[in-house]
TrEMBL record:
Record: active site: 108
EC number: 2.7.7.7
Domain (UmuC): residue spans on this chain: 9-189
Record text on cofactor binding: Binds 2 magnesium ions per subunit.
Protein name: DNA polymerase IV
Substrate discrimination, annotated site positions: 18
Gene (UniProt): dinB
Organism from which the protein derives: Sphingomonas pokkalii
Keyword Zinc-finger: no
PROSITE patterns hit by this protein: UMUC
Length: 360
């Protein structure tokens, strides 16, 4: 039997998406350091323009730190309804080229363009045409990675940012990975990267040099994945039907909460946001979880799985109150509360959850 064709995978990633939308819609912001988020004492940067990034301002950075790094930083409140509408425009463009689209967030997605639906000729040319259409139809730029698997395509999309693209071909994949720091690898976060450094693993070459048994001893079930990506191997297909595992909402408060009534009211507010998502998607869950972060950053969670799906707002309210009351009265101030649901029982058309932070 003939071997299957080499996959042609694109990773399309919008450039500083939230901040770029704000600069597009308000000419006064163009060319200036912009942060999407709250300037409050406990605010967090959700997205930063490239002008702000030159000062070291990044998503997830505390706002007070961001202002210290960039005194001229301009804060803009997020407009998630606008970001979602633009995301729908972008995904409509993707759909003209393939049905195999796997969204990762509002501003990035994998596309399998192995089947050349529009007869463009190459995946490289397809990525260029998609980026040109995004610019023409939205006024925003996107970067693209082109490769034979998802892992390499995602790495490649970051290689020529902003407003560029890069290809990793089958004959260069393994060698290209060897020269990269492992901290850039998707799926290796700061904690794992630090652990790898202590073990003498700083680059892809270092990771490839470690035998699988060594990786299993130190990284358990993740060892096989690390062993594969160090060789540029990733067999995961682009999955347009990837099932959602959970959905949630959380808030960091401008002041610590300590009164039972305030804490319960805040949890109900988070539950209401989650329930709005349920109403949009029709997805019902059996498990409710409440997350509590105290003023000293200690985190506790309380979960309960119900025998039947949580089918009404009132049931979700009751479930969340039951969970949060297990930590009341609060022994110390609470700076963050979150509510999430999981263990879905029903799945209809998915209406993606808004991410907390914007990507590159």
């Amino acid at each position: 039997m003939a071997a299957p064709p080499t996959r042609k995978i694109l990773h399309i990633d919008m450039d500083a998406f939230f901040a770029s939308v704000e600069q597009r819609d308000d000419p006064a912001l163009r060319g200036k350091p912009v942060a999407v988020g709250s300037a409050a004492a406990r605010g967090v940067v959700a997205a930063a323009s490239y002008e702000a990034r030159t000062f070291g301002v990044r998503s997830a950075l505390p706002s007070v730190t961001a202002v210290r790094r960039c005194p001229d930083l301009i804060f803009v409140r997020p407009r998630f309804d606008v970001y979602k509408a633009v995301s729908q425009q972008i995904h409509a463009i993707f759909a003209d080229y393939t049905d195999l689209i796997q969204p990762l967030s509002l501003d990035e997605a994998y596309l399998d363009v192995t089947e050349d639906r529009r007869g463009i000729g190459t995946a490289w040319a397809t990525a260029k045409e998609i980026r040109a259409r995004i610019l023409a139809e939205t006024g925003l730029t996107a970067s693209a990675g082109v490769s034979y698997n998802k892992f390499l395509a995602k790495l490649a999309s970051d290689h020529r940012k902003p407003n560029g693209q890069f290809a990793v071909t089958p004959d260069m994949g393994a060698a290209w990975v060897e020269g990269l720091p492992v901290s850039r690898f998707h799926g290796i976060g700061p904690v794992t990267a630090a652990k790898m450094r202590k073990l003498g693993i700083e680059t892809g070459a270092d990771l490839r040099a470690k035998p699988l048994v060594f990786l299993q001893q130190h990284f358990g079930s993740s060892a096989e994945w690390y062993h594969q990506i160090a060789r540029g191997i990733d067999e995961r297909p682009v999955n347009p039907n990837r099932e959602r595992k959970s959905s949630g909402s959380e808030t960091t408060f401008s002041r610590d909460l300590s009164e039972d009534g305030d804490i319960e009211a805040a949890v109900l507010g988070q539950a209401d946001e989650v329930w709005e998502w349920v109403e949009r998607t029709g997805m019902l869950a059996r498990t409710a979880t409440v997350k509590v972060k105290y003023a000293d950053f200690q985190i506790v969670t309380r979960s309960r799985t119900h025998p039947a799906p949580i089918a009404t707002r009132g049931q979700l309210h009751a479930a969340c109150l039951h969970l949060v009351r297990s930590v009341l009265p609060a022994a110390k101030g609470i700076r963050l509360l979150g509510v999430s649901i999981s263990n879905f029982d029903k799945r209809e058309e998915e209406a993606g959850e808004l991410p907390l932070f914007d990507g590159a």
